[in-house]
Amino acid sequence: MIIAIDGPAGSGKSTTARAVAGRLGYVHLDTGATYRAVALAFLRDGIEPTKEGAERVLASVHLDVLLDETGQRILLNGEDVTEEIRTPDVTAVTSTVAALRSVREKLVDEQRRIARAFEEGKGGVVIDGRDIGTVVFPDADLKVFMIADERVRARRRFEELRESGSTATLDEVLRDIRSRDEKDMRRTVAPLRKADDALKLDTSELDIAEQVNVVVQAVKERENLSAV
Ligand code: CDP
Fold first, then answer.
1. Hey, is 100 helix, strand or coil?
2. Fewer Cβ within 10 Å of end Cβ, the chain: N or C?
3. How far apart are the C-alpha atoms of 137 and 140, rounded to whole Å?
4. Is the pLDDT score of 226 beyond 80?
5. Burial, 105: exposed, middle or buried (Cβ in 10 Å; 0-12, 13-18, 19+)?
6. CB-defined site of ligand 1, < 6 Å
7. 36-78 pLDDT, tens per residue?
8. Can you tell me which atom of ligand 1 is nearest the CA of 180?
9. Are 28 and 126 contacting, i.e. CB atoms less than 8 angstroms apart?
10. Nearest-CA residue for atom 1 of ligand 1
11. Distance from the alpha carbon of residue 228 to the mean position of ligand 1, in angstroms
12. pLDDT tens figures, 163-208
């Protein structure tokens, strides 16, 4: 069972995907972390996010996605960078790196391989990102496209960042979200968009438990249909 969850920044994808996976005994794969890890490799090597730069970075990048009791951990050339990929510097460059065709080709292959392995081990994987239902798994068993009012999304991200010690203001967070969404929707390769057959879920007025219930319910309906 492959469950694809896409949507803009702060729409609640990762939190929902993690909780849905927990409820169903499946695995959660956060593809944003793979783009963030490659973006970190550009920053560390001081390489510009261009087509030429990507050739150099991709030649020396190896990613591993592991699972432990805290959830997904991501390793860049053997080093655990799970926390470091959430810093504002990495966030700022990730959408530019993620627009590069060669980066996407490499990561989409990796994501498919990892998701299939998880699916085989646990029976199902909940995978979240921007292009999962449109490009990575266009045949997913269930596709969800999560949206929410931009102010609600900024507020959520602001609270999250504040808890991790950030001093960014709400306005700064809102600007960052707007600029990333715009880059993600406008890029030529795999832009952020709803797949025609995705379930649209507006989380502006839902809390986490409610949005998780909607997705779990939709999975159960699919399971019943495929059992007939
Ligand atoms: O958690 P948040 O929604 O803020 O971001 P994320 O899921 O960690 O993704 C960070 C960035 O990676 C996005 O803004 C996209 O530019 C890129 N991304 C992508 O292009 N395709 C994906 N499947 C996942 C992330």
1. coil
2. C
3. 5
4. no
5. middle
6. 9, 14, 31-32, 35-36, 94-95, 98, 129-131, 180, 184
7. 999 999 999 999 999 999 999 999 999 999 988 788 999 999 9
8. 14
9. yes
10. 9
11. 36
12. 988 899 999 999 999 999 999 999 999 999 999 999 999 999 999 9
